[in-house]
TrEMBL record:
Top EC class for this record: transferase
Transmembrane segments annotated in the record for this chain: none
HAMAP family: tRNA_methyltr_TrmB
Taxonomic source organism: Leifsonia williamsii
Gene (UniProt): trmB
Residues reported to bind S-adenosyl-L-methionine: 57, 82, 109, 132
Protein name listed in UniProt: tRNA (guanine-N(7)-)-methyltransferase
UniProt keyword annotations, A-Z: Methyltransferase, S-adenosyl-L-methionine, Transferase, tRNA processing
Amino acid sequence: MEPTPLVRPRSFVVRGRKTEAQTRAIDELWPSFGLEFTGEPLDLDAAFGRRAPRVVEIGFGNGENLLTLAERHPDRDFVGIEVHGAGIGRVLGAMRDRGLTNIRIVRHDAVEVFETGLRPGSIDEILIFFPDPWPKARHHRRRLVQPEFGRLLVRAIAPTGVLRLATDWEPYAEHMIEVLDAEPGLANAAGADRFVPRPEDRPVTKFERRGERLGHAIFDLEYRPRT
């Protein structure tokens, strides 16, 4: 009998229902702004019709950060990776309302996208803001930031690129810094075992506001490829 292959734990659980407006936005706008993941590298030059600095946000949620940054920086191209249809529908509708054309969306597991969907050294900035902390000890293996994923981030990021992360869950912040400080391809911009001040250009999202209401500290991390 063939051995059963090990199944990698997912860092997400698909939940939530789309509104009618979100469903319409997906039906109408996905052909223009959605990128279908096939397991092959995405042709981002063709998708955006230009070559510009590329930013990837992993797990953009309701899209507050993604939309704000795309509006502020029309000279950059943004790829949002998300699995939740409600957030995707909201972003597509907001793009139409705001006249934004510099966002493309991939609805797929971010780990698999980074495994085969992004060319080496092709991404100038990677954003991971307020990912699910999976606080229970038995669920820690589901956390997105793991050594294996750190290596995929290093592979995708440009030599002059930057990786930015934020969380309001202190144990996850400590886990992130432990994992990423140990990754030989990354250098902590603040120095080993240290966090950076909150970047002024990082939009405040509902996740951050909720964390602050709960009395949580906010932890920002920044890494650059080690040369």
